[in-house]
Automatic annotation (TrEMBL):
<dbReference type="Pfam" id="PF00071">
    <property type="entry name" value="Ras"/>
</dbReference>
<keyword id="KW-0547">Nucleotide-binding</keyword>
<dbReference type="GO" id="GO:0003924">
    <property type="term" value="F:GTPase activity"/>
</dbReference>
<dbReference type="InterPro" id="IPR005225">
    <property type="entry name" value="Small_GTP-bd"/>
</dbReference>
<dbReference type="InterPro" id="IPR027417">
    <property type="entry name" value="P-loop_NTPase"/>
</dbReference>
<dbReference type="InterPro" id="IPR001806">
    <property type="entry name" value="Small_GTPase"/>
</dbReference>
<dbReference type="GO" id="GO:0005525">
    <property type="term" value="F:GTP binding"/>
</dbReference>
<protein>
    <submittedName>
        <fullName>RAB5C protein</fullName>
    </submittedName>
</protein>
Length: 219
């Protein structure tokens, strides 16, 4: 066996069997799915299907000499799906709360999301990141950076200025979370949401009568 083969075999052996559950939260059209698309495939699409319930994906990255496998739930931002969100963030190791810098209301809602996760998550050490998305639309910015920075400092959040369109800080967002995670994923005492397969993209809903909505634009 050559040296390169040995290194490859060692890397495969070191691949994590258990993943860190990460949930994306925030209002509709703030760019959660676009951030995820950029992270997973380094792509951006002007037209992206509205998430119904939640979509599941996985990706493994290297952080501080170890392999970190993310099991990512991209949740729907529409109000009618709000009650489903706790199903996904309870027991999560990390959460990314996204807001749109060009829409002040989404920042107010992001603050509500952060407080809700902190008060109801079953993981007392959950890592929470705040993504100030749509940094490429600086001329339309409605949320001063200082305001977001002040809130992040008060709540102990990992804050980044992101753009799914240009890719600005998207990879850094996930890398930064990985650096803050413990050695092992959080394992809740009670049985939470479990995934038996690893689909590329799936839609999960608790209500069987929910139908997919029309496509929407977001970045």
């Amino acid at each position: 066996m050559s040296y390169s083969d040995a290194v490859s075999s060692s890397a495969k052996a070191a691949a994590p069997r258990k993943g860190f559950k990460l949930v994306l939260l925030g209002d509709a059209s703030v760019g959660k799915s676009s951030i995820l698309l950029r992270f997973l495939h380094n792509k951006f699409s002007e037209e992206i299907a509205t998430t119904v319930g939640a979509a599941f994906n996985t990706k493994t990255i290297e952080s501080k000499g170890r392999q970190v496998k993310f099991e990512i739930w991209d949740t729907a931002g529409q109000e009618r799906f709000r009650s489903l969100a706790p199903m996904y963030y309870r027991g999560a190791s990390a959460a990314i709360v996204v807001y749109d810098q060009t829409n002040a209301v989404t920042f107010d809602r992001a603050q509500e999301w952060v407080r809700e996760v902190m008060s109801t998550s079953t993981n007392p050490n959950i890592v929470i990141a705040l993504a100030a998305n749509k940094a490429d639309m600086e001329s339309k910015q409605q949320v001063p950076w200082e305001k977001a920075e002040r809130f992040a400092q008060q709540q102990g959040l990992f804050l980044l200025d992101t753009s799914a369109m240009t890719g600005k800080n998207v990879l850094r967002l996930f890398e930064g979370i990985a650096e803050l995670l413990p050695d092992e994923p959080f394992m809740p005492q009670q049985r939470g949401l479990q995934v038996l397969t690893t689909p590329t993209t799936t839609n999960a809903t608790a209500a069987t009568d929910q139908k997919a909505s029309a496509r929407s634009r977001c970045c």
